[in-house]
Write a structure and sequence with these properties.
The structure is a single chain. The chain contains 15 helices and 5 strands. The protein is mainly alpha-helical. The strands form 2 sheets. The protein has a 3-stranded antiparallel β-sheet. A hairpin with a 3-residue loop joins strand 4 and strand 5. Helix 8 crosses helix 10 and helix 9 packs across helix 10. It is globular, with a radius of gyration of 27 Å. The termini are far apart.
Amino acid sequence: VASLWWCLARPAVGLSSRRRVLPGGLRATPQHGVSTTGGAPGCFFPRRHPRHRDVFAALRGGAIDEDDDEALFEEEEEALSEADFEGETLKARVLKSWRTTPPMTQAYVGASLALTTLVFLLGANVWPDALHFELRPTLLRLQLWRPATAFLYYGPFGVSYLLTIHFVWTYMGTLEKLAHQEPWEFAIMLGFGAALLLAGVGIAGLNAKFLAHNLSCFLVYIWARTYEGQEVNVMEFFNIKAELLPWFFAAQTYLLEHELPVHDLLGIAIGHLYVWMRQRDALHAPGWLVDAFKSRPELMAKYAAMADEFGEKDDTDSMSAESSTPDEDDDEEEDDDDEESDEAEEDDD
């Protein structure tokens, strides 16, 4: 938690050499894989000048002559500019991240932020019972908003809430970006998880105030299975495998709250059921939902723009370049043949 807040609040340095970072300190590699960065989610690392190792070698008294010290540090000063010390403000970075957030994650996180802030301003920061899920008033009094608003509650507005919603924003946004080619499948994933969480809470008689927490555990489990086998840096202390991350959070809940992490386990169980059904190709979006997405070109354009993050446009360009290479080779061969025939005619003359 401290690592997440430090990452969110610290100034950016060396923004010209940012590395794209996935949740949990994972960095996307050029081969579309993931590798450990040793940083917290969303952090960017300052640019290192290629001559820094020479400076350190000179300071140790080896590798570089003393006569070259002055010239070396002059090069360092020339290489630095005001841009290296200018960073975006926290507000600018948050707005930039918000603009690149996928649509469904924007809608969910935005709704939670708006409703929690409204309760903070008008309701003394106490979430009203009318926004929690209860089956009887939902069915008998037709209070149909309850199943939706119950998933927006992550606690009263404060530092803890901001850290939690940033956590959900990061993981949910990553999963939606991974489904940018078929965003309707991401919608089915959310609907599947929400429906079974509501049913599970009702059957098990659990407190419905923690439905949002259940949903976050569901998302983290699916994310962990997506990046299974990769290492995740936990708060700058140690690395664990991605598939162990949901169980680490469940153990953290047990240690901090001194009770069985029933809500964590419910989210993990439903997440596992979703992964199991997807692996067996048993869960698909209905045709009407697919048509609803495809009928909105402005929405699909936002998802198409995310292809840059996965190198798909670059792959397309390279394929088109490869396809045009044979034609260029043929033209070059024809030019060589013409030159040889001209030389032969000159020899005959």
